[in-house]
């Protein structure tokens, strides 16, 4: 994905959206089994395709996620922010499978795949509409300058 980002000259935020789109294809493939009796995780090859899409996107997502986070945090406070991101990751790693299992036990596991798609897409409006990376970088520069000035005065 890094080479694709460089080739297309797209920002990190757009790359995250692209990766989420790729990762969403796997649970959507499974959810298609709700609509048709002959497709949607009913054959072995479908599992290979779905898991390949998920694995292809997941590594790129976590790497790109950290890149975007590092663009928006003060360098000397990176430990705190990356620790907070790690805690959020652990909570999501616990709640996600719990919700998935609660839905899957009610019937067909394909309904739980729709939950995965919803959880993938839920942050996209926030990422696209509420996060201004350029403004965040300029605010970061202003914060760093004011912190340096306060350190000099002290």
Describe the structure.
The chain has 154 residues and is mostly helical. 81% of the residues lie in helices and 0% in strands. It contains seven helices and no strands. It has helices spanning 2-8, 12-31, 44-72, 78-104, 109-121, 124-130, 133-153. Helix 2 runs antiparallel to helix 3. The radius of gyration is 20 Å and the shape is elongated. The mean pLDDT is 88.
- Main sheet characteristics: none
Q: How much of the sequence is in beta strands?
A: under 5%
Uncertain parts? none
The overall strand count is 0
The ordered string of helix (H) and strand (E) elements is HHHHHHH
Specify the helix fraction band: over 70%
How many helices? 7
Decide which structural class fits the backbone. mainly alpha
CA-based shape: elongated
Q: Indicate the radius of gyration in whole angstroms.
A: 20 Å
Cα(first) to Cα(last) distance is 45 Å
Mean of residue pLDDT values: 88
